[in-house]
C-alpha cells in the first residue's frame, strides 16, 4: 500500500536520523564501486512518452506538487520580489526564470528516490525524498549540484554582459520602458537572439551531463565520473531523442513559468519523476542486461 501523506514531524525526524552520517562517510562516498559506464539502451520517442506518462502517474500518486509548493516556490517568490523591487535587476528576470531549468536536476533528487522505491514495490512516503540523501548519495549529488550551480552563476553573468552590450549599461527607467526597448528596438532584438543562443549552449551542456547522472547516483554507487560519462554516452547514443527530451523540458518549463511561476509547482515534479523513468529506459539493471 502506498502512503502519500504522513505526519511531517515523524517523516522528517525519521529521514534526518535515518540518513545522518559522518563527514568521513560522505567523503568516502565520492568514490565509485564502478569504473566504467554500464551498458545502455537505445531510447526512442516511445520511451519519452512512456516516461512522461509514468511521471504523471507518480505525480498524482505522491502529490509531490505539495512538496514543491512548500520547499521550492517560496525561494522562487523571494527571487521575484527582489528582482521586481530593483530596476537594476529587472534585466535578470528572464535569465533567472530560464536558469531554474539548469538547477532542475538537483531539485528532483527526492522525487527520483520516490519513483525508484515505487518501481521496486517498496512502501513510499514523503520521507523517502529526504532519505534519498544517504551518505553514499549526498556527497556525489551535492558535488555535482555545485557544478550546476556554477553553470547557473555563469549564465547569469553572461546575461548581464549581453544586456550591457545591447541595451545597457544603464538600468531600465521603468518596467514599461524596458519592455518597449526589448520588443521594439534592434538592440532589444539583438539581446533576445544572443541571449537565446548563449542560453541554448548552457542548457545543452547541463542536459547532456545531468539527464542520466543524477538518477544514476540515486540508483547505484556509480560516482560522479562514471555517472556523468554514462549520461554523455546516452546522449551520444541517442542525440535526436535526447534533443527532443530537452525541447520538451524547455517548453514545459516555459509554460510552467506562467503565470508567476505557479505552473512550476506541477511541471517540475512531473519532469523529475519522468526523468527517473527515462533513466530506467536508458540504463538497464544488471538483471535486465
UniProtKB/TrEMBL annotation:
Keyword annotations for this protein?
Membrane, Transmembrane, Transmembrane helix
Where is the chain membrane-spanning?
66-83, 89-112, 144-167, 187-212, 245-271
- According to UniProt, the name of this protein is Cytochrome c oxidase subunit I
Originating species: Roseovarius aestuarii
Amino acid at each position: 500500500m502506498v502512503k502519500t501523506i504522513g505526519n511531517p514531524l515523524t517523516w522528517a525526524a525519521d529521514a534526518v536520523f535515518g540518513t545522518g552520517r559522518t563527514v568521513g562517510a560522505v567523503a568516502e562516498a565520492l568514490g565509485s564501486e564502478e569504473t566504467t559506464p554500464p551498458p545502455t539502451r537505445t531510447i526512442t520517442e516511445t520511451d519519452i512518452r512512456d516516461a512522461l506518462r509514468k511521471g504523471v502517474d507518480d505525480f498524482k500518486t505522491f502529490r509531490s506538487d505539495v512538496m514543491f509548493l512548500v520547499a521550492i516556490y517560496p525561494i522562487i517568490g523571494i527571487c521575484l520580489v527582489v528582482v521586481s523591487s530593483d530596476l537594476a535587476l529587472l534585466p535578470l528576470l528572464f535569465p533567472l526564470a530560464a536558469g531554474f531549468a539548469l538547477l532542475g536536476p538537483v531539485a528532483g533528487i527526492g522525487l527520483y528516490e520516490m519513483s525508484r522505491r515505487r518501481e521496486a514495490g517498496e512502501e513510499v512516503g514523503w520521507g523517502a525524498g529526504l532519505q534519498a540523501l544517504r551518505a553514499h548519495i549526498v556527497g556525489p549529488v551535492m558535488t555535482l549540484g555545485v557544478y550546476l550551480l556554477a553553470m547557473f552563476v555563469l549564465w547569469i553573468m553572461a546575461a548581464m554582459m549581453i544586456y550591457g552590450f545591447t541595451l545597457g549599461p544603464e538600468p531600465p527607467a521603468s518596467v514599461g520602458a524596458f519592455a518597449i526597448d526589448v520588443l521594439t528596438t534592434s538592440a532589444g532584438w539583438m539581446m533576445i537572439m544572443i541571449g537565446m543562443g548563449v542560453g541554448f549552449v548552457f542548457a545543452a551542456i547541463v542536459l547532456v551531463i545531468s539527464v542520466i547522472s543524477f538518477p544514476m547516483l540515486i540508483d547505484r554507487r556509480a560516482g560522479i565520473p562514471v555517472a556523468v560519462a554514462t549520461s554523455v554516452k546516452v546522449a551520444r547514443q541517442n542525440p535526436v531523442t535526447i534533443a527532443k527530451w530537452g525541447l520538451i523540458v524547455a517548453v514545459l518549463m516555459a509554460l510552467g513559468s506562467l503565470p508567476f511561476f505557479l505552473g512550476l509547482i506541477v511541471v517540475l515534479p512531473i519532469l523529475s519523476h519522468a526523468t527517473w523513468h527515462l533513466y530506467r529506459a536508458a540504463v538497464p539493471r544488471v538483471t535486465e542486461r
